[in-house]
Amino acid sequence: MTRTRPTQHGGRGGGHGAVGAPASRTSRSPKRLIAGGLAAVTATGALVTFGSMAQAGTPPTGPGNIEIFNKRSMVALEGYAAQAGQEATVEVLRGDRTIGIGVGTLDATGFLEFNHPGGECWIGVTPTIKPGDEVRVSFSGEAFTDSAITASPTVTEVVGSGFVPDGAVQPEGSLRVSGTGTVTIKGTYDPADPWFDPARFVIETVNPDNRDDKTPPGQDPGLVDARAMGITLVPDAEHPNGEPGLWDAEATIDPATGTWSGTYTLYTQADYDRTLDGDHVAAAWMAGEEPALGLTQNEFEEIPGPGMGGCPPSPDGQVPTAPSTAQLSSATGSTSVEVAWETPAQPADASEVTGYRVAAIGGAHAEQETAERTGGTSVSLDGLEAGATYEIMIEAYNGRWSAAQSLGTVVVGSGTGGTTPPGDGTDPGTDPTALPAAPAGLTATSASLDSADVSWAATAGATSYTVTASSEDPAALVPAPVTVTAPAATLTGLTSGAAYTVSVTAANANGEGPASTATVSTLTAVAPAAFDLTRVIPGHESITAEWTAAAAGNAASPVSGYELVATPADGQAAVTFAATGTAGTVSGLRNGVEYALTVVAKSGSATTTARVPATVDNTVTPTDVVTVTRAQYRADKREYRIQGTAQDTTANRVHLRLGDVAGSGTTIQLNVPVQADGTWAVDLRNGPALPTNNRFNVTSDSGASTVAVMTRSR
Questions:
Q1: CB of 382 within 8 A of CB of 483?
Q2: What dihedral angle (degrees, nearest 10) is formed by the CA atoms of 281, 286, 292, 293?
Q3: For residues 492 and 430, what is the distance between their CA atoms, to the nearest angstrom?
Q4: In the predicted model, what is the mean pLDDT of residues 549-570?
Q5: With contact defined as beta carbons under 8 Å apart, do 77 and 111 qualify?
Q6: CB atoms within 10 A of CB 516
Q7: Residue 591: which of 538, 650, 546, 545 has the closest Cα?
Q8: What does DSSP say about strands 542-547 and 405-411: parallel, antiparallel, or unpaired?
Q9: Residue 166 burial (CB < 10 Å; 0-12/13-18/19+)?
Q10: Highest mean pLDDT: which range of 12-21, 357-366, 448-457
Q11: What is the pLDDT of residue 22?
Q12: Which residues pair with 112 in a beta bridge?
């Protein structure tokens, strides 16, 4: 069984290994930390197993430390007392490229952390830290730098065998269930990693509830009484893995496959459950001359990205960088512009650019805009005004649209440019010597309600083709002519069941040649089959609905989409939203106003409205929505760390109180601002004591409320 569960560790007090105070030195860059050679286990190329005598769990001691929590984009500096009060600059480097940077002031103990509540945010982007990345720190008050390399060990899987009771009779009154179960943490590493030393590597499970004093009344405390349970690879007779009679452990590493594992053997149901439910970590200290510089903690249950409200998104949440230069050309006498560009370099770990929107803005009316979308790196903008000047704008898309970037201006039909686009494009400035012939092999087919596919053989000397549709049916919609450079086109916006004549002409700089024609009829629309509305949920200025998929009325009438209609009870105009799946959200509504929601399935012009079962209430009132994404309470310090979201981000605040009645109870913290990205956070010490039911409530200025349960530790 594989278990994955979110956790929240801290930098100070939340790490998994102890480090000492710093010492003065001129520099500790990786170039000076010469690796002392890996232990023999990595040189043999064979699988090595370390049993009950294998433990080097006490981390090496030494001056100040850089802790890298790479799974959650967090870095902590500890023990830099000699630099206390100075401004520290932390850079994350991948090769010679800086992928993240942060600046903050070390406290009186020489401590500072990034991307964790109470610490500093990264600047501009929250980096995704990967094995091999360098974390470098410099200080404002002296020419001194430290540097650590992110270790390669990575937790990939946590597997529980299941607990098998042995049926042993327990003392009267005991709740213990004895037996045997194993929990195995598996992972990978790079055998060529010069900074990885098996003697400085610990496989660890952390669970504050695994202390006897944390066991709730009426539950078995188990045999294990340890917050952290470490397993190491290198034998150490003074620190054996496990505790005799309480729990056992062994570890393996295989340089041939670059894999490692650590297995706990537990003897009570309580110990097995808490080990499986704990936080699973691979902790590696850098190999080299320094005794304790560079601790990487790879936490299985964590994810990268902003660690608190107000911090910038990670690279995959950033908008792309759009091209700033391109080749622009327009053939003599034409009404089109050819645009070609190259995809610019994107930030490290950013989402791939998958498309562009290119627009020509200008003509007789300054507001005129002609735009095309493409997944490639060239496009033809057609139907422009000959002799007019247009500005060409481009936007890039990677799941988010970039800001529009100007690529310059071009005069349509001027014959300027003439540069061949990347690939096999035709030079738009080339002038053929004669008019092209009528396209041969013209075919037109329709397998839908509102479109037709047209194709023909390429015509010698042609630089473009114009496809035109006409119909004798006065009710039929006729689309505008389509100009293309390839011998195929799709006509859209046709009328269901109508007959059309399609003509295609080829053209070059000397003019347009004769037309070829073909006929085609679109299919007849049939309304979709009946379907049901299954769920309606009000949100902040929105309503979300779910429904069953509507089947096509017949094979020729696929469901083309859905339309959600929210009709307000006060008689104002209804709000509609188009959807393609079986769920959608209508936004732009007014909080506090009652709306009736309906869903319509469409097949061309034919529609079917969803049935509303008696169990579904489709009359709802939008309001703000608040959620709690993290809730931790540390009893010994009465410390609260709570994070959440609110959908209303306009001058909105949330208020936190103890108890399960919204707006009532002892105050935890009031007037917590909601950030522009919808997040809010509370990091409070010496707060009120948490009641034994662990429940608290959150309300917002916009009228939302929720009740949540706090995770209690220590």
A1: yes
A2: -100
A3: 31
A4: 89
A5: yes
A6: 19
A7: 538
A8: unpaired
A9: exposed
A10: 448-457
A11: 28
A12: 77
* Strand 97-105 with 112-114, pairing: unpaired
Distance, CA of 98 to CA of 676 (rounded, Å): 27
Coil/strand/helix, residue 414:
coil
Of 533, 528, 600, the closest CA to residue 558 belongs to 528
Query: What's the rounded mean pLDDT across residues 212-218?
Result: 75
Which residues have C-beta within 8 Å of that of residue 442, sequence separation ≥ 6?
454, 455, 456, 502, 504, 516, 517, 518
User: Model confidence over 38-58: pLDDT tens digits?
Assistant: 222 322 333 443 333 222 333
C-alpha pair distances (Å), 205 with each of 15, 155, 220, 252: 12, 12, 19, 16
> What would the mean pLDDT of 466-477 be, rounded to a whole number?
92
| Sign for the pseudo-dihedral over CA of 609, 613, 619, 622 | negative
**Tokens standing for residue 236:** 């150490």
Which pairing describes strands 488-492 and 259-268: parallel, antiparallel, or unpaired?
unpaired
Evaluate whether 320 touches 396 at the Cβ level (below 8 Å).
yes
Is the pLDDT confidence value at 307 over 50?
Answer: yes
The confidence band for 570, taking pLDDT boundaries of 50, 70 and 90, is very high
How many Cα atoms sit within 13 Å of 78 on the Cβ side? 23
Evaluate if residue 24 carries a pLDDT over 60: no
Q: Is the pLDDT of residue 3 over 50?
A: no
**pTM score of the predicted model:** 0.49
Cβ atoms of 211 and 227 closer than 8 Å: yes
- The single residue listed with the structure tokens 């020419």 is 143
Distance CA 227, CA 276 (A): 13
Full set of structural domains in the chain with CATH: 154-299 (no CATH), 327-411 (2.60.40.10), 443-521 (2.60.40.10), 533-620 (2.60.40.10), 626-713 (2.60.40)
At 630, is the pLDDT very low, low, confident or very high (cuts 50, 70, 90)? very high
- 272 CA to centre of own chain: 33
